[in-house]
## 1
Amino acid sequence: MLTLFVFTKLRYRRLLIQIILFGLVFDVALAVEPNSDPGWLKYETIPTLLFSIISLIIVLYAIWWVKSGRKFNIREIPGLRAVEEAVGRATEMGSSLLYTPGYGGDIQRPTTIASMNILSTVAEKTAEYDCRLIYPTHDPVIMAVAQEVVREGCIKAGHPDRYRPDDIFYISSSQFGYAAAVDGIISREKPASIFLLGTFEAESLILAETGNSIGAIQIAGTDSTIQLAFFIVACDYTLIGEELFAASGYLSRNKEILSSVKAQDIIKIVIAVFVILATIWATLDPSSTWWRF
């Protein structure tokens, strides 16, 4: 009886023939030579591939879930509930509202995009209440996008005539030039409400303390763990980390954003379960390595 097995190795151009003849096993290796070609597949990246596929499936599932009209609740965030209060306060006091995205980001940063989504809701409410919205920025591209966002918000509110393009302006590309200019605006205009939402660096505490000194209600949010500490102590409400990204979906109820938030939550649960399982497994069997990738 003759049985023939052929094994090939992709990474080492090698042909291994195993012959089993009357119960005896013979291994014959042919054409053994190093292969400079790394091959089309890296085995060490397979876990990353599997995780990417799982993430893609979760995202598609979340999109299907939200678009099918099923109920999807987002935990209430105090800072977002206060948006209505901040706009109403500025309106009642006959004062203005100041909104700035910080110095640290350009239009491509996720925090700037999330800030634009929140600005859309704020602009719609200020147009509805006929409250002045001041938007200073350090970037001319952000200024142009913000002008369009605010204009669209005024149109949604049914008051396109309340769009004031001169109140959305570029001031300086210098970090402390920007901080000094916004400080001056806060001191002179004394807005009743201040929104500090976006990417902030060293200017965060300067702006937050100035707003605090005039008694303005302040809502702040950023993804910088360093600057969050300053916002927490100096502002009334702070959106911490991912709350800033969830805020746009919370306020707008946009289905695409809600599906993204749901997918992120599911992926976080999957990662947490994996970490717990790997920790227990590694404790019971320290020599195991399957969970390392």
Note: The beta strands are 2-9, 14-21, 24-30, 96-100, 132-137, 168-170, 193-197, 217-222, 237-240.
## 2
Amino acid sequence: MADRTRIFSIKEINRYIGMKLESDELLNDIWLRGEISNFTHHSSGHMYFTLKDKDSRLKCIMFASHNQRLPFIPKEGAKVMARGNISVYERDGNYQFYCTAMQPDGIGSLYLAYEQLKRKLQDEGLFDAARKRSIPPFPKAIGVITSATGAAVRDILITLQRRHPSVPVLLFPVLVQGTGAAPSIVKAIEAMNRLGEVDVLIIGRGGGSLEELWAFNEEAVARSIAGSAIPVISAVGHETDFTIADFAADLRAATPTAAAELAVTSVQEVKSKLAQMESRLVQMLRMTVQNRKERLVRLRRSPVFLNPRKYVLQHAERLDVLQDRLQFRALRAAERSRERFGNLNTTLLRMHPGAKVNQASKQLQQISARLEAAMSGSLKERRTELLASMRQLDALSPLKVMSRGYSLVYDEQEKKLVKSVADVQLGDVVKVKVADGQLECQVWGLKGEA
């Protein structure tokens, strides 16, 4: 039995169960609704609690990295909606819920819409850091888009006046909550871009509930901020309030007051920095002047300035030596050039085409003479051979033989030479050719040689 079945340790089986739970698509990202009980906020920052309803309960943990930006503080008995995954705590062998996000129950639909829109715009790259523009350090004018009557506009204007009173501020009043708020904000952003009179836009409002801040979670507002040619600072609610507009803006401020501080540099700070820079510059100039004075003193004490004629004479002597050396090398170079020119001229004359033509003409004449002598000898030899051949042919000529008394006998048609008595019959007419003519004869008898 032990040979066929693997024996697991408790740790191994707990880890295996944890892997199975974490690989489950449903349990990997779920939302739970329940009431918080046994809540503990540990000194490490982690939160431990139980979510329960009337029929069951589930142990939960929310690590500090996830709970530090919660827009509310969880407490005992609070009804919440929590997002996370199910896994196993290996040491105790308990499965539990690992919470990554939480919101008070009752506004769940808005929160889900917020998460869905945030994920959609993030996937489109609307929140990418690469497309964020820098806020100009010294804007010529600042545009403010917010409610004309809220505390936010008062904080912004007071802060701008305090930090940089000479910067003009152009206020565009808008609705910051309610049904018409989002179109009002979009219209204000477009109007500010058309006017082109400001370098920075501050868009925001004071704190409020999720429903009150919802206009800044509208897709139209986020796209309008991202499409603005003017850099935008968002300042919506308090430090714990994060809206879609904050992610789409070029810079997020925790509060409207912080937005005004980020928009302009404090005049007092600039003056203080300028004073510090002036002080450092004066100090550097004094040090530089002092260093130059000390150097001048050293130079005045140097042998060069104490006895300058000595150094001038040394250099004059050196100059004479160099002039003599230069003259010698120039003459030597001229001699080498002349020698090289003579060698090249000799080579050129030797390789002149006229000399080559004369030499070739002489060679041609010699070859022509030898050729004529060879042809004359060959012609004489061929003539001698021809005469000998003619004499031999003449001796073998039939006419020559016939002049010695011989004749040729043909049949009557002169087509066949009669060479034997068998070639004729009695009564046949034959023709006999002699040296000076032809005889027509008739055969009267036949007699062969014994």
Note: The longest strand covers residues 30-41.
